[in-house]
């Protein structure tokens, strides 16, 4: 495996990471792909429902999944229903809601970890959002998100209030910060644990993971992949340390990279 494990302590180093090789080592027989969606494959949009994906990207992902013998999964904060809607007609293995919803090859779903937060928390978040123009609540079941992209000046207030409400009302859940969003997800559920769970079974077992992501939640998956001898590609520049050893400037660059690899395959 040629993906190096590097340590990146500064934003400057993260901004100067090399691009991933055109043909990653182990492709297609010994490697597994894990794709984050928003900010990675998808350009960010004003609202969760405002995203779109070029049809040729869906075709490229489908083709790569076949070439990898099915060892291509989505790892996302979105729900499985959203994943299938965005990537239709594909139905890929997926760790949705940060891993609270897990779909292995063949459509089997995990049960258990996907309990929603207490209703009193969702009600309190709803009341908070209703009183502040520009905020919105995305209720995804096991995970709930407060979005402030339309009101970025409210970031401090949102992060503080969501943290306080979760501490007081939802001991089963914890806060997951993200881009213009404060999410609430089940405690201990993260993309790293989800990646490791998928890697335990075919078609992932015996391969090395390569993860593509952009946000804080993806760092769990980056670290898990590196710990399993694989690698990570950060999409977009960040002002934080990252476990990724490679970088692409934006989702368009990743879509082009995937299309080229699919074409070559
Ligand atoms: O894990 P991901 O696939 O990256 O999903 C993370 C969250 O993505 C969505 O929110 C983000 O994208 C929106 C559309 O571009 C944007 O409006 C918002 O500001 C971003 O935070 C999604 O709505 C969340 O449920 C996901 O958890």
SSE blueprint and pairings:
Elements: H1 11-15, E1 31-35, H2 55-67, E2 72-75, H3 80-86, E3 94-96, E4 101-103, H4 119-130, E5 136-139, E6 144-147, H5 155-169, E7 173-178, E8 181-186, H6 191-199, E9 208-213, H7 216-227, E10 231-235, E11 246-248, H8 251-264
Parallel strand pairs: 1-2, 1-9, 2-3, 9-10, 10-11
Antiparallel strand pairs: 3-4, 5-6, 6-8, 7-8
The chain binds the ligand O=P(O)(O)OC[C@H]1O[C@H](O[C@H]2O[C@H](CO)[C@@H](O)[C@H](O)[C@H]2O)[C@H](O)[C@@H](O)[C@@H]1O.
Region (Disordered): 1-21
GO molecular function, one term: metal ion binding
GO biological process, one term: trehalose biosynthetic process
Total count of domains: 2
The biggest beta sheet is recorded as: 7 strands, mixed
Shape designation? globular
Q: What proportion of the residues form beta strands (DSSP E)? A: 15-25%
Ligands, deduplicated: the ligand O=P(O)(O)OC[C@H]1O[C@H](O[C@H]2O[C@H](CO)[C@@H](O)[C@H](O)[C@H]2O)[C@H](O)[C@@H](O)[C@@H]1O
**Radius of gyration based on Cα positions:** 18 Å
What is the first-to-last residue Cα distance?
19 Å
Order of helices and strands: HEHEHEEHEEHEEHEHEEH
Biggest β-sheet: strands ordered side by side in the sheet: 4-3-2-1-9-10-11
CATH class of the largest domain: Alpha Beta
Average pLDDT: 92
- CATH topology label of the largest domain: Rossmann fold
Binned, the helix content reads 25-40%
GO molecular function: metal ion binding; trehalose-phosphatase activity
Function: Removes the phosphate from trehalose 6-phosphate to produce free trehalose.
Family: Belongs to the trehalose phosphatase family.
Cofactor: Mg(2+)
């Amino acid at each position: 495996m040629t993906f190096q494990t590097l340590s990146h302590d500064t934003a400057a180093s993260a901004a100067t990471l090399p691009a991933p090789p055109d043909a990653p080592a182990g492709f297609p027989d010994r490697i597994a792909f894990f794709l984050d969606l928003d900010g990675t494959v998808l350009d960010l949009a004003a609202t969760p429902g405002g995203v779109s994906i070029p049809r040729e990207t869906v075709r490229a992902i489908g083709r790569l999944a076949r070439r990898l013998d099915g060892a291509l999964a989505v790892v996302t904060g979105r729900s499985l229903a959203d994943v299938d809607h965005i990537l239709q007609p594909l139905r890929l293995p997926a760790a949705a809601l940060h891993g609270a919803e897990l779909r292995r090859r063949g459509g089997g779903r995990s049960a258990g970890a996907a309990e929603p937060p207490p209703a009193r928390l969702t009600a309190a978040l709803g009341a908070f959002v209703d009183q502040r123009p520009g905020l919105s609540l995305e209720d995804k079941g096991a995970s709930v998100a407060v979005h402030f992209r339309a009101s970025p000046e409210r970031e401090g207030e949102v992060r503080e209030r969501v943290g306080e409400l979760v501490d007081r009302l939802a001991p089963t859940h914890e806060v997951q910060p993200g881009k213009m969003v404060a999410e609430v997800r089940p405690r201990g559920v993260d993309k790293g644990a989800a990646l490791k769970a998928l890697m335990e079974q075919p078609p992932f077992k015996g391969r090395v993971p390569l993860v593509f992501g952009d946000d804080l939640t993806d760092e769990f998956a980056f670290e898990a992949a590196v710990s399993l001898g694989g690698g990570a590609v950060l999409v977009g520049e960040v002002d934080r340390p990252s476990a990724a050893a490679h970088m692409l400037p934006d989702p368009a660059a990743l879509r082009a990279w995937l299309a080229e690899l699919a074409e070559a395959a």
